Amino acid sequence: MNTHDVRWRQRFDQFDKSFALLESAMTIEKMTIIERAGLIQFFEMAFEQSWKLLKDYQEAEGFTITSPRQAIKQAYQSGIIADGHAWINALEDRNLTTHTYNEQTANIVEQKIRNAYFPLLKSLHTVFRDKIGQQP
Hints:
By secondary structure, the protein is mostly helical. The protein has 5 helices and no strands.
């Protein structure tokens, strides 16, 4: 097992933990401001781990990845993810929420997380959980 192969497995463990936090927050239907901020923070953490997982996995496959956008584009081209545009939108919203807090933006991003971004992360989680299960 080479270094890149080990790295993506370790990254999956980190993604798995951050995804579990996001998944738990998703069960709260009517959120307070604090809960919404927590949901957005958990999304930011899970998203950060997701693109790094994609990067590490693809590097193990022989690709050179230098940015989140490139990791997403290559993952789409390789068939790891199905909706490249939605992933790019998630990246842009992650970047937006990381640097500012605005209540109106937070409400919009919460709905995007619930309706679009969480399903993307859940699908990725399933893909890599299956890859880990297939490995010796």
